[in-house]
Amino acid sequence: MSEVEMTSEEKRGKIVAEFRVLNQRVQQLRSQLLDLSGEVTEHERVLKVLEEADDDRVTYRLIGEVSISVS
Length: 71
Known about the structure:
Strand content: 5-15%
Shape: rod-shaped
Strand order of the largest sheet: 1-2
Order of helices and strands: HEE
Oligomer: single chain
Distance between the termini: 69 Å
Largest sheet: 2 strands, antiparallel
């Protein structure tokens, strides 16, 4: 059925369905934004702690199940 042949009720239903799809996408993007904002905050905290650490301090990095010394 073409756009011309659709009744106003069918057009309204189509618009509402499209709106719901777009609204769901907005909610997904908001959720992703909140997740990324949390990660940014966490990374900023880690950077702050690392900047305050002594330069001669030995650090370790966990790779898989092995702890590796990093200078």
